[in-house]
Amino acid sequence: GQQLNQSPQSMFIQEGEDVSMNCTSSSIFNTWLWYKQDPGEGPVLLIALYKAGELTSNGRLTAQFGITRKDSFLNISASIPSDVGIYFCAGQLRANFGNEKLTFGTGTRLTIIP
Amino acid sequence: SQTIHQWPATLVQPVGSPLSLECTVEGTSNPNLYWYRQAAGRGLQLLFYSVGIGQISSEVPQNLSASRPQDRQFILSSKKLLLSDSGFYLCAWSKTGAYNSPLHFGNGTRLTVT
Q1: CA nearest A66: which of A102, A30, A20, A18?
Q2: Which residue from A minimizes the CA distance to B34?
Q3: How far is A106 from chain B (nearest CA, A)?
Q4: Chain A residues inside the 8 Å CB shell of B35
Q5: pLDDT digit of tens for each residue in chain A (114 aa)?
């Protein structure tokens, strides 16, 4: 089946630093999604990308859908304490009508060092 | 706006006991519904999805089952829990009929089988 390689697995940064993480796939997707998960909660959608080459921002977050449709990156600028959490990429390939199954990356755990 | 509710938030059950986790969605009709399991804060694995009442697809063979008795209700069950069923269970929904609609997650149920 499809697999997503997400890197880095973890990041330790200081407040105010910029963050960059990425996902690569062995096959193409129609959509790339980025989620953030806080401890003990469900993932929350941050950004959705629908077209190859698309660059989308959401506040301090910027994500891009790779031209090859096999990769995506997420950047966070000027990190703040509430950015701490686990970030997941997810690829979506619509196999059947009404079935938007996702393949998730393994996550990037972001920690801010005081 | 749409909301998704999962309960209970935490559950401790002995091996061999039955399980019933419930998920409901409000503010939308005929959603696609999903059950995911997450181990150790990473790696979401799709267990079941449903595109309509009574329509359940299983992604992996396991000790669990799912049912959709009503349009916006999704239930995860087991007749006899195993130790390996411990984990964080997430329900999610997406819009039906919308191309590559993102998934939106509930806050999860942490199940510990003792």
Answers
A1: A30
A2: A101
A3: 5
A4: none
A5: 556 899 999 999 999 999 999 999 998 998 999 999 998 899 999 999 999 999 999 999 999 999 999 999 999 999 999 999 999 999 987 655 555 678 899 899 999 988
